[in-house]
Design brief:
Immunoglobulin-like, five-stranded mixed β-sheet, four-stranded antiparallel β-sheet, binds 2-acetamido-2-deoxy-beta-D-glucopyranose
């Protein structure tokens, strides 16, 4: 009998550390659920902590070991909740001090509409999508990402499979389709949900990764030329069947003028008419040869100086 009573008394205790901080919000939620009523609130709003056992009457509230005071129904209101309010609260019978309920308060924001981008960096194998949420919701937020291709009964649907915490990809693509793909990304947390729909035609979102392995070499005997060589991006699966064209930009190390040439359908190029004896900084970008989609970002820069008389 005595043993049962002890268990009943201890069970409501909440194990969240009193000053658990925003950075760890979400940690241990699973473990806490059985011991205290987990409550989520929105930062900067009025958050109301209710005491179920008070049956409409007043209750005494404590936070950790500290007495907060006596609050009538509906409960303890925090007018402008901030991260400092997160933690473990309890309400007690006004006369006996018996614990009526314990509440673990977590604060954050409902998810906003995610900013979603999708690109075919490995055309025509896959579409890669990534997203950001601003502001960060701070609470554990789940994402459901799906895609649809086609209308109504004829639609093909599937999961956009997660490739990272905030990225996903899907394959099995239909090239040159005049029907848009639509990606549906839904962010869900205890305070709400938000869905972003992104429609696109596959060929319009082709965007290779930047070219790789750019090398700049002098050409013996040539004081005004530089030889440039590079490789297609490693993520572009079939450069033989879906060739790329390349744009080159270069600048003198000390100079302010940047010149751009191209595009050219080749992975090497001889820059002519460059300033003799001067260091030049070069970058290359790639685009699908048929001009679909967008240019890649610029590659990592490489530098070189034309040949000089020994
Ligand atoms: C709410 O609190 C934040 C900081 O915690 C403060 O910047 C803001 O002015 C407060 N708003 C009101 C209405 O008191
Ligand atoms: C793009 O998707 C492919 C195929 O699923 C995956 O292997 C790759 O890691 C993804 N790339 C990025 C940058 O997420
Ligand atoms: C997007 O996905 C969410 C979650 O799966 C779903 O509830 C919603 O209805 C979808 N929206 C559309 C327009 O398909």
């Amino acid at each position: 009998m005595k043993w049962l009573w002890v268990v009943a008394f201890v069970a409501p205790a909440c194990t969240v550390p009193y000053n658990s901080t925003a950075g760890s919000a979400g940690d241990g939620d699973n473990g806490d659920r059985g011991r205290c009523a987990l409550q989520h609130g929105t930062l900067g709003t009025e958050v109301l902590l209710q005491c179920p056992g008070a049956a409409g009457g007043s209750a005494e509230w404590r936070r950790g070991g500290t007495l907060l005071g006596m609050y009538p129904a509906p409960g303890l209101a925090l007018p402008n909740a901030s991260l400092a309010h997160e933690g473990h609260y309890s309400c007690h019978h006004p006369a006996t001090g018996d614990t009526l309920a314990t509440v673990c308060l977590r604060l954050g924001y409902p998810p906003t509409l995610p900013a979603l981008e999708c690109w075919a960096i490995s055309y025509p194998q896959a579409v890669n999508c990534s997203w950001v949420l601003a502001p960060e919701p701070l609470l554990d937020t789940d994402f459901v990402a799906t895609y649809r291709h086609g209308m109504w009964g004829a639609a093909e649907t599937g999961e956009c499979v997660r490739t990272g915490p905030r990225s996903c990809s899907f394959g099995d693509l239909q090239m040159f389709s005049l029907t848009p793909y639509v990606v549906n990304l839904t962010a869900v947390n205890p305070l709400g949900a938000a869905s972003r729909l992104l429609p696109f035609l596959l060929e319009n979102i082709i965007k290779p990764d930047p070219p790789e392995n750019l090398r700049v070499s002098p050409i013996p005997g040539e004081t005004k030329k530089l030889l440039l060589e590079w490789s297609p991006p490693g993520s572009w699966p079939f450069p033989e069947y879906f060739p790329l064209k390349y744009r080159i930009r270069y600048t003198q190390e000390e100079g302010s003028v940047t010149k751009t040439v191209g595009p050219y359908e080749q992975t090497s190029y001889t820059l002519t008419g460059v300033q003799p004896g001067t260091l030049h900084r070069i970058q290359v970008a790639a685009k699908d040869l048929t001009d679909s989609g967008e240019f890649s970002a610029w590659s990592l820069p490489a530098s070189g100086t034309p040949w000089t008389e020994p």
